[in-house]
Amino acid sequence: MTLPLVVADASVVLKWFHAAGEEAVEPARAILEAFARQQIDLVILDLAIYEIGDILLRVAGAGPEATATLLGALTEICQPVMLSGPEGATAARLASEHNLTFQDAAYAAVAQERRGRLVTLTQELLEAKLGVRPEDAFA
Predict the structure, then answer these.
(1) If we measure between CA atoms, which residue out of 87, 70, 81, 54 comes closest to residue 18?
(2) How many structural domains does the chain have?
(3) Are 3 and 41 in contact (CB under 8 A)?
């Protein structure tokens, strides 16, 4: 049986480790729990590591050691993937069509190319209807 594929962007993955002042923490964590229960396949991009590291250090106030520990835990939970050539082409097209950053479009491209669902809290991706909020991930 093929499991549904969920692509989680950094706005969702961050909630797995940091809750203070964040929205949609429980729905975001429900995605991680569904993966742990083998109810979904989960993809995160290598890009998420850099984005989350930056947020932990610069916004959340985590120190270097805590940040490194959390990022190490993340890569053990779910091995990050790189964009393939076709996914990069799709990302460029989506970025152009929807006036998105290439980084945001990359998440949507991986979801599209791998026939999955992008789960995000990034307003631009939601407005372009390229992803769904965490609470709608299983709808």
Answers:
(1) 70
(2) 1
(3) yes
